[in-house]
Amino acid sequence: MQKHLLPGAALMSLVSGVANAAPVLIGTFIETATTSNPAPPGSTGLGPLGAVGGINGPITFDAPFSGDVVMTVQPAVKVFAGDVYQAFINGVSLGFTKAVPLFGSNFTSGTFTAPVEAGANNFNINDQLLSYVGSTPPYGSAASTITAVPAGFSPDSVAITLDELPAPVPEPRSLWALLVGLLGLACVRTRRSGAVASDRL
After folding, report:
1. Can you give the pLDDT at residue 176?
2. Are 74 and 159 in contact (CB under 8 A)?
3. d(Cα 22, Cα 155) in Å, to the nearest integer?
4. Per-10-residue mean pLDDT for the chain, 201 residues long?
5. Which residues contact 174 (CB under 8 A, 6 or more apart)?
């Protein structure tokens, strides 16, 4: 059984020795969602006004390499709480930012991750609350005197920050450990082959 320890330990060292490179900032985008912009295709949880609340997207961005994009979404200027944003990358919904009540003290935010290929990609945002103007907000209201989204409710701009996580890169010691492990496995196979040959004799 001991003959398996060297290859196994080397392979475990490879896993533990993988280095995660630092995130690369793609950029921060300031966009404005309005009732005059259509909601992105695939938007869900829309209110009585239907598919409105988009940012006139999709917005194109360039990924420097293939990897995972981390998308952070939050209000650019925190004036009126209550917005909840649905985030999209390349037309695929990544979900919603944190639900918060209208005119409360907390502001929505969310972080999403999606794989992308190197080169041109796109993101989109929908402000779900804008489809509820004149109606009861889906996440309630912190002000008892305001039970519907006011007609004049117009959120300030939304900030979208994109970072990309490169694929993990094996460290030099990990590559060496892998080589040792593969050599160990080769030795085990050679010994087994020799033992089988001697048994046949």
Report:
1. 60
2. yes
3. 33
4. 46 49 92 94 96 96 96 91 95 97 94 97 96 94 91 83 82 61 65 54 56
5. 13, 14, 16, 17, 18
Q: Which residues are CB-neighbours of 159 under 8 A, at least 6 positions away?
A: 28, 29, 30, 72, 73, 74, 75, 76
**Distance between CA atoms of 109 and 111, rounded to whole angstroms?**
7
Tokens found for residue 201: 């004799």
Per-residue pLDDT at 20: 62
What was the pLDDT predicted at 22?
A: 86
Contact residues for 178 (Cβ-Cβ < 8 A; gap 6+): 10, 11, 14, 170
Amino acid, single-letter form, for residue 108: T
Query: How far apart are the C-alpha atoms of 141 and 130, rounded to whole Å?
Result: 14
SS3 147: coil
